[in-house]
Write the structure tokens for this entry.
Amino acid sequence: MQMMRQQDLVFSVPGFLLSINFYVALALFFFLHLHHQKLQIAFNELWLIPTLVAVIMGYILFRFLIYRISILLFSNKNILQSISFIDLLQMEFTGIILVPTILVLAFGSVVVAQFFWYIAFAMLASIVVYRLVTAWRIGGHLLFDNLFHFILYLCSVEIAPFLILLKWIQQWSVLK
């Protein structure tokens, strides 16, 4: 039954639109944050938002590819599929939440926008913590038996793609 829900969510038009909403909303959020921090990327600003969308899509695609490889390699397929499904739901929920946040940040007064940056980052951090806690509740009992797999998961799925993305942004950014 859960596989049917996952396939319906991933391969349906609403699921596709929610995913596109997440990619664009997160790219716009990063774009606004770059301008708020007076940080400029070293290439044409017209291509900045499509580039951010492509980088975010690549990051998410890499994470789901690692999940799919893990599902094929390890015996706990149901647990990994559940965690992958939670990531998909978290991604779509984050996209929905980011839309009003972006509107306030882009069109609000300076004082309201400054206050809203803290709210936005706290909200994004709480969503990530919720995803990690939920994944822990689903598969935490396996960690005591397979500590090596947990460390491998953390390094390959959670930490490495984020560090690669930060390194790429650092190479292309120039402080004004």
In short: DSSP finds six helices and two strands in the chain. The longest helix spans residues 77-107. Residues 136 and 143 are 9 Å apart (CA to CA). The first strand starts at residue 39 and ends at 41.
